[in-house]
Structure formats: structure tokens, C-alpha cells
């Protein structure tokens, strides 16, 4: 059976995997001083990308029956038999092996261990819980925030105790809750048809998001306190207050009025929230690199 580039991209969810790879890369640049184009940077970016692609491929091998029942996933390569489960597994294993080779040769051992922890936790814990317990969303968000720790581990062990790192971790954890509930309540019938166990009480979902609103605030301002320039700290705090209100608090209140109708706004608001947060971090990375260059 011929494997096309399109099938490969869908199987490995290339766009999502690329996003998963960018998060540890930004964490690495934010906490360290390595050149963007260094071998270490390349190994982290490509290694985390390949591991994310491997996890998505294996996820589709495992959940092919559920994918077949859902409108939004029924045209994936395995459900429509453009790929067999064996082919999907072999592709996943190839990316998994490539990721480990890259990281083993050029990155610290603890970074390799964290990368594998993310992979096995995603498949062994999160994927398993999706058909067993509504707790899968909160647990999945913890696993989804671990790439931040991966980036820090590539800098040094001391970076694992940095306030900025934990601010990033808290932000990524809480961001995922709003983002996923936006997706879930938009496609709720699809998820129920496939037998996934999700939070179906909008009041409970709202409580989760309000809890994460507080975590988001603490995380945002914790990260802002670590920025290199006083002006950037101020900009970050003001941006944080506005973003927390318009794209977090307001999105939650609209969700409470009509979850199904406003789920799409909740999802779109989460993207805006993420964009502002990481734009400021990238500004800080750029300023620090520029100052270092000027000093030399």
C-alpha cells in the first residue's frame, strides 16, 4: 500500500507535533544562552518533533476504532484503510528511534529520560484514561506541560528550579484546559459516540477553567518577574491582565451562558492567549541575545 506525504502528515499530526516541538525549544532558549542554530538546538527541536510525531502515530494505531466513529477523525489513514495498523506502528517506531538517537548523542541524559516520559505517559496513561475516566483531561494537561521541563533540562539541572520555568509549566497546564474544553464542547456528540469519558457537566468544566484562571495569573506574573528588562516586565503584566480578562475570564463566562454555542470562541480565545504570552517570551529571548552580541 502506497504511503503518501499527506497520509504521513495526518497520521503523525504534523502541525500539532510541530507545536509540541516549539514549546521545549522556546523554554530552552529562554532559560539558556545557546545559539539558535547550534547542534544542541537542532537536536532538541528535531528530537522533540520526532517524538511528538511518534506519539501521534501510535495514538492513531491504538484509537483507530474510536477514530472511525467520529466525524472529525473518520477520514484518517487507518480508519479508511489507506494505511494498516502495522504500517502506522512501524512509522511511529521509526520516528521514536530517530528521536532517541538525536537526543542520546547531543543532549543530557535527563532530557532523553523526560522525552521518553512524555511519550510513554501520553500513550500509557492519557490515551488509556480517555475511555475510562474524565480525569484524563487534567492528567493529560500535566503531560502536555512536560515539554517545558524538557527544554529546561537541556540547559542545566539548575534550570529545573527556575521560577520562569515553573511559570511556563503552569501556563501550559492551565492553557490546555480551556483549549480542550473548547474543542470538546464543540464536538461533544462525536466524543460521546466514540465512547470517550469526558466531563459532560458544564458547571464542573467551568470550575476547572476558573481554577486554571488563577493558575494562569500566577504563572503569567511569575514568568513576567523573570524577564530581563523592567519595561518588558511592565508590558508583560499589562498584557497579562488584559489577556486574562478578555481571552480567559470573559471566554469562561460566555461558556457558562451556552457551552455548545460559545465553545468555538473559547477555543479561539485560547489561541490568542497563547500567542500573546509566547510573543513576550520571544521578545525577551531576542533582547537577551542582542545584548549578549553587543557585549562581545
From TrEMBL:
InterPro entries: Protohaem_IX_farnesylTrfase (IPR006369), UbiA_prenyltransferase (IPR000537), UbiA_sf (IPR044878). GO terms for cellular component: membrane; mitochondrion. This is Heme O synthase. The lineage of its organism: Eukaryota, Sar, Alveolata, Ciliophora, Intramacronucleata. It comes from Paramecium tetraurelia. GO terms for molecular function: protoheme IX farnesyltransferase activity. GO terms for biological process: heme A biosynthetic process. It is a multi-pass membrane protein. Pfam families: UbiA. The keyword Transmembrane applies. Keywords: Heme biosynthesis, Membrane, Transferase, Transmembrane, Transmembrane helix. It is found in: Membrane. The chain crosses the membrane at residues 12-30, 42-62, 83-106, 112-129, 136-153, 165-184, 269-287.
